[in-house]
Amino acid sequence: MKLDCLVILGGNGTHKTANLLSEEGLNVVTLPKTIDNDVWGTDMTFGFYSAMNIAANVLDCIHTTATSHGRVFIVEIMGHKVGWLTLYAGIAGGADVILLPEIPYDIDSVVKTIRQRNESGKRFSILAVAEGVMSKEEAKLSKKEFKAVRANMAYPSISYRLAKEIGDKTGQEIRVTVPGHFQRGGSPCPYDRVLSTRFGAAAAKLIVQKQYGNMVALQNGQIVPVPLSEVAGKLKTVPKDCDVIQTGRDIGICFGD
């Protein structure tokens, strides 16, 4: 096809395929682009902050109704396997409970937090819930068993099951908000515009220098090349002991464990 180089933008699946093409001899340079921020080898992907702004804004807007009506609101945020988006949006948007795929939740722990808030005079609670969360019971299942449980679940998503369980245990009115694909669209925020420009310029330099088979990445504030072979097939999940989670715990956020 007489290609000098193929520049590929995307997330984990994209980078896995890009590496296969690179191994077959095609000149490839990639850029990490996903709202999930789960690409291995880079501190940040472009798209993440834009999506986080939208999710945080949803949480901000929900506060108005939650406060005036004294209800429990669950906001379901994108993220099947990792919880970076829910974690950051939850803290930015003032969520009282944040549930992540990396930390299986105990429903009694969640209910305890809501009751404690009620007893302290706070009539509302807001939960930021990643779409891929699972209970502690589900976490003990095999992948096949887990898929079977979810396939037979009588709710459109995990947030609605949580709403039913919390409502039954607290007697409170629970509402679910799912911003869904709104989080993937719209105008990119200034941070993402700058980051993607830095990535693009660095990718162009790699091509000029014929340094193929690399992904441009952000590491410790610097743009650096990372071999695709180190990136492909890996997932950057949220460490349970990371400083952002610890910050959340320090300010009283419940993570369901």
Summed up:
The protein has helices at residues 12-23, 48-69, 84-92, 107-119, 136-139, 143-151, 158-170, 190-208, 228-231, 243-250; strands at 6-10, 28-32, 72-77, 97-99, 125-130, 174-177, 214-219, 222-227.
Q: Give the second-level CATH assignment, the architecture of the largest domain.
A: 3-Layer(aba) Sandwich
Question: Strand percentage, roughly?
Answer: 15-25%
Using the coordinates above, name the CATH class of the largest domain.
Alpha Beta
Can you summarize the main beta sheet? Answer: 4 strands, mixed
Contiguous helical run count: 10
Summed up, the domain count is 2
Q: Give the helix proportion (percent range).
A: 40-55%
Which spans have pLDDT < 50 for at least 5 consecutive residues? Answer: none
